[in-house]
Amino acid sequence: MNLQSNLVGAVAGVVVLCSAAAAQADVMFWSTQARPIEEAQAMRDTVLSGYEGTVDYQPNEDGPWLTRLQAELQAESGSIGVLGALHGNFSAMSADDLVSLDDLGVSAASDTFNELARLGTDKLLYVPWMQASYIMAANKKALEFLPEGADIDALSYDQLIAWAANVHEATGSPKFGFPAGPKGLKHRFFQGYLYPSYTNGVVRTFASDEAVTAWEKFAELWEHTNPASTNFSFLQEQLLSGDAWIVFDHTSRLAQAFNERPDDFVAFPAPAGPTGRGFMPVLAGVAIPKTAPDMEESKALIQYLLKPETQLETLRATSFFPVVEVELPDDLPPAVTAAGDAVAKMSASADANPGLLPAGLGDKGGDFNRVFVDTFERIILARQDIRQVLDDQKGRLAAIMEETGAPCWAPDAPSEGACPVE
What is the pTM of this model? Predict the structure, then answer.
């Protein structure tokens, strides 16, 4: 018996043991999400407790999650009834391994999310389940300086720049705050917000003429950015101190400001550029593998998970926001209410253009992020020529993509093999 056979046999043994443990449940829910002990227990005790059947909720790291799933698919038989995972996990799978969910009658409020869930096919291969994201926030004192006619829930980048300039002029100091510190998530802004909004891509369009325009616009915004932003990593601190009046950051890194002084701040969607309202959803979905033992029970669980009341319980359990239209109750923490409203408006906007988390990069994810950080530091901080910097960095990015073989992810057009840097 060769090594491969031994491995498959060992994995199959694990499958048998796990199947026996879950024998009493109507559905095994095999998930990469809600893994921390407290979240997993909340999923079992509150989110899933209202389901008419019984659910064996089993969260796992990505590696074991995929290994078990692949073993069942290879054996053409299994006990996993429902899969819970991020979009990137599903996009790496073969469409033939998942069951079409078009007949369920449930979907996200965002047409953009529903299109992503088709994974490039004409079938709904997973149902969007929950989301997190990055948003904008502002001190309410800044609202009087909004440009004339501007809608805070539908800003353009030009309007954001004008707003920051108005606040700068009125207060005598730059009050835009950006997470450019050592632990700040600045790379996610460029990958998921600026590039999709101006280039409708991230990798293919990295050194395009449209990318030059994007960096020119960000340089304009930087003129009204607190220069201490190179030390800012959690913008809730600068909102509370008053060092920044308008900021961008992850929802979790703004929570303290809203929870401590909810009446002082407002949350709102990221701005839009020429190619849409770029934003980076952390989108999780639920799917059914073709080897599920009871298709009807699996479908019933997915329908239950998309009910508004279940979505709210999921929010309480995981801090991931609903993907369906719900009215947030008054007893949620102020930060959850504020961020949830902003995320919902952003993802459901007509011009939504999501820039997904990078996928397929393996241990090169840090190198990929470094390309964007270095580009920012050279163009914005060192004021080097934009075209020259992009041409220099283009080769580094191309080498990473070729080495990993990672195919393109949204909003870049799909690729056969490694995503090209055009």
Answer: 0.80
